[in-house]
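Predict structure. Input: DDE Tnp4 domain-containing protein, 188 residues.
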Amino acid sequence: IPFHQHPKPTHLLLALRFLKQYPTKETLAGHGGVTEKTALLCCWKYVEAIQALKEQKIVWLFDDIDKYKEVYVACVDGVHFWIWEPRKFPSTKWYSPKYKKAGLAYKIGVAVHHNKIGWVNGPFPAGKNDKKIFDKPDGLRSKLKDRQRCIADQGYRGNLDKVVIRNNRHEAPTKDVMEQGKNQSTVD
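Output follows.
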């Protein structure tokens, strides 16, 4: 019987625990009250089901500039995830200042006025420069139309044609919109 015909909330919780903590199969089975084989089987089925939702849930809304007339379309920031440094490719490029260890970075764009995740890019070595990722052919710059801008932190300096960085010269309404976008994108 396929698992999606008889879903069990406890198996979903095991999958979420697996994604957050990446425990051993013995620990996972112990928390779920199931065998190791069942724990891994259930976890991976739910993880694959969650992954299959990516195309439906992470959608760039702003290709239709007639429908979406906003200038500030997204707030972009990065999140780091701690990893073991790759043995075959040791390098300082993996260094995450957040963890002071090796890490991976993902860049996430949250739609400012729509409260949706609109763009995810990664993984990248945690030491990779935000501006370089933004400017890559599949980077966020490639998604932005002529008048569209993103709100970002200081790591995106040098992209002033597409990125707005909050500063004291902005008028109060602009700061409010930027602050709203910043609050929505807090992922760390």
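The radius of gyration is 20 Å.
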